[in-house]
């Protein structure tokens, strides 16, 4: 099906129609909303108000999908998963408007019915109208309280079940977050709520190419609100706007990069070396290249001229992105290779960054559909790969050198358990306390976790939920 246009034709509201098209693409062919939505917005001539409404509808409906289906399930005589998918997506959009926007109930129902008529024809119109009227009545009866609407269990009896309902997350993700926060229910609720907040845009001012103050000034001159980041000395935060319009970004002097990701690379670069340097840093899983480029910039400006970076990436498209990121760094090179079989002699690298493929649970705020797309089975597949890559990294680093193990996830099966399993089998490795890195000097120590690892969080640090372990190969 072509989701760039309605199936039946009709006079649907353009913002709602665009949101429906994105939901269909996500549901039908596994598209990523954060890629699909901007592409559609760029092709449509919507007013700024409609662009904003389409964005809210799209991301909000995808994030709240479980809640929306739960609400629909209370008013329909058939299971929600048996409803024709195009109709179901329209009903989700209508229910989201009734629950979470200021759109009057009558307008939300009527506009959604018109959306169904335009995209699905006349046959399901009566059904959609009846369902949405019942949803509107239920929302009015309960004042939109999701806990009441879906009969959420009491938080003191079943905290996981309660948080799953009120935060619109699958139960297993709530369990992951609660465990990572050592059972802190209030902290878990704040972390889950942060996944519903639209993430800010973070830029990295690559050292030696542009300064932070210069980048802030350039953004301000372009009409963007910008200020220095909280932790990374190279971070700039934008309060909305298109960073791609900045000359520094076009030239590769700056790039979009979450401040947490910056801190991961900088923490590795800041670890003092022990023993004779080889002058080689390796990024074992470099795609798409943001951390590699920051490492290359730091090496070029703060280390001896002979130090180089080797970035490995097995997939051609991503290797191309890495090469583009490293353009202008003559001591940095990209090789297409699997990090488990690096084309480098073992025991020769000073530093190895292994930013392993992971579930991405730490970046759910950036991919609203991911919370419903990921399953526990994904972790079971990823964990063995993560262990293999960490073993490869430790074999590659020289005695006295350091490995940074990084994931964008708070799941212990991808983070501390991977590190503990590998380090527990190696007498030649010592775990450093990552919290003591000078990179985190301005971050409250009690917010970084119990150590020796670092776990960042959106609700505490304003970054993705990045995990860091620093491991040194013994030199004795």
UniProtKB/TrEMBL annotation:
<dbReference type="InterPro" id="IPR001678">
    <property type="entry name" value="MeTrfase_RsmB-F_NOP2_dom"/>
</dbReference>
<feature type="domain" description="SAM-dependent MTase RsmB/NOP-type">
    <location>
        <begin position="191"/>
        <end position="474"/>
    </location>
</feature>
<feature type="binding site">
    <location>
        <begin position="285"/>
        <end position="291"/>
    </location>
    <ligand>
        <name>S-adenosyl-L-methionine</name>
    </ligand>
</feature>
<feature type="binding site">
    <location>
        <position position="313"/>
    </location>
    <ligand>
        <name>S-adenosyl-L-methionine</name>
    </ligand>
</feature>
<dbReference type="Pfam" id="PF01029">
    <property type="entry name" value="NusB"/>
</dbReference>
<dbReference type="InterPro" id="IPR035926">
    <property type="entry name" value="NusB-like_sf"/>
</dbReference>
<dbReference type="InterPro" id="IPR049560">
    <property type="entry name" value="MeTrfase_RsmB-F_NOP2_cat"/>
</dbReference>
<feature type="binding site">
    <location>
        <position position="355"/>
    </location>
    <ligand>
        <name>S-adenosyl-L-methionine</name>
    </ligand>
</feature>
<keyword id="KW-0694">RNA-binding</keyword>
<protein>
    <submittedName>
        <fullName>16S rRNA (Cytosine967-C5)-methyltransferase</fullName>
    </submittedName>
</protein>
<dbReference type="GO" id="GO:0008173">
    <property type="term" value="F:RNA methyltransferase activity"/>
</dbReference>
<dbReference type="InterPro" id="IPR023267">
    <property type="entry name" value="RCMT"/>
</dbReference>
<dbReference type="InterPro" id="IPR006027">
    <property type="entry name" value="NusB_RsmB_TIM44"/>
</dbReference>
<dbReference type="GO" id="GO:0001510">
    <property type="term" value="P:RNA methylation"/>
</dbReference>
<feature type="active site" description="Nucleophile">
    <location>
        <position position="408"/>
    </location>
</feature>
<keyword id="KW-0489">Methyltransferase</keyword>
<dbReference type="Pfam" id="PF01189">
    <property type="entry name" value="Methyltr_RsmB-F"/>
</dbReference>
<feature type="binding site">
    <location>
        <position position="338"/>
    </location>
    <ligand>
        <name>S-adenosyl-L-methionine</name>
    </ligand>
</feature>
<dbReference type="InterPro" id="IPR029063">
    <property type="entry name" value="SAM-dependent_MTases_sf"/>
</dbReference>
<dbReference type="GO" id="GO:0003723">
    <property type="term" value="F:RNA binding"/>
</dbReference>
<keyword id="KW-0808">Transferase</keyword>
<comment type="similarity">
    <text>Belongs to the class I-like SAM-binding methyltransferase superfamily. RsmB/NOP family.</text>
</comment>
<keyword id="KW-0949">S-adenosyl-L-methionine</keyword>
<dbReference type="GO" id="GO:0006355">
    <property type="term" value="P:regulation of DNA-templated transcription"/>
</dbReference>
């Amino acid at each position: 099906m072509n989701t760039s246009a309605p199936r039946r034709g009709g006079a649907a509201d353009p913002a709602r129609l665009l949101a429906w098209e994105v939901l269909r693409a996500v549901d039908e062919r596994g598209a990523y909303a954060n890629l699909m939505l901007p592409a559609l917005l760029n092709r449509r001539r919507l007013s700024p108000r409609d662009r904003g409404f389409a964005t809210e509808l799209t991301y909000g409906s995808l994030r709240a999908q479980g809640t929306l289906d739960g609400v629909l399930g209370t008013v329909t005589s058939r299971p929600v998963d048996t409803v024709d998918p195009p109709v179901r997506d329209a009903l989700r959009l209508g229910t989201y408007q009734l629950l979470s926007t200021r759109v009057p109930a009558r307008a939300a129902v009527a506009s959604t019915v018109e959306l169904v008529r335009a995209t699905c024809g006349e046959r399901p119109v009566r059904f959609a109208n009846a369902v949405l009227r019942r949803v509107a009545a239920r929302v009015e009866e309960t004042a939109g309280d999701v806990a009441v609407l879906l009969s959420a269990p009491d938080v003191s009896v079943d905290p996981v079940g309660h948080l799953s309902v009120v935060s619109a997350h699958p139960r297993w993700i709530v369990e992951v977050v609660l465990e990572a926060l050592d059972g802190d229910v209030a902290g878990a609720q704040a972390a889950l709520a942060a996944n519903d907040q639209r993430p800010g845009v973070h830029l990295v001012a690559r050292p030696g190419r542009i300064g932070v103050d210069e980048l802030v000034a350039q953004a301000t001159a372009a009409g963007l609100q910008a200020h220095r980041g909280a932790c990374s000395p190279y971070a700039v935060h934008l309060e909305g706007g298109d960073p791609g319009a900045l000359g520094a970004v076009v030239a590769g002097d700056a790039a979009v990069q979450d401040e947490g990701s910056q801190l991961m690379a900088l923490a590795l670069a800041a670890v003092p070396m022990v023993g004779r340097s080889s002058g080689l840093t390796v990024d074992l899983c470099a795609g798409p290249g943001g951390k590699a480029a920051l490492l290359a910039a730091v090496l070029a400006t703060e280390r001896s001229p002979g130090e180089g970076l080797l970035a490995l990436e097995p997939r051609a498209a991503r290797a191309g992105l890495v090469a583009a990121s490293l353009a202008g760094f003559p001591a940095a090179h990209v090789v297409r290779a699997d990090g488990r079989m690096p084309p480098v002699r073992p025991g020769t690298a000073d530093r190895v960054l292994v930013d392993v493929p992971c579930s991405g649970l730490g970046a759910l705020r950036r991919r609203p559909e991911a919370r419903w797309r990921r399953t526990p089975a994904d972790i079971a597949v990823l964990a063995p790969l993560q262990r293999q890559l960490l073993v490869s990294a430790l074999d590659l680093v020289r005695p006295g050198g350091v490995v940074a193990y990084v994931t964008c996830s708070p799941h212990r099966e991808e983070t501390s358990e991977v590190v503990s399993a590998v380090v527990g089998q190696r007498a030649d490795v010592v775990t450093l306390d990552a919290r003591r890195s000078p990179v985190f000097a301005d971050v409250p120590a009690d917010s970084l976790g119990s150590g020796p690892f670092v776990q960042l969080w959106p609700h505490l640090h304003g970054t993705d939920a990045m995990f860091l372990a620093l491991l040194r190969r013994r030199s004795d």
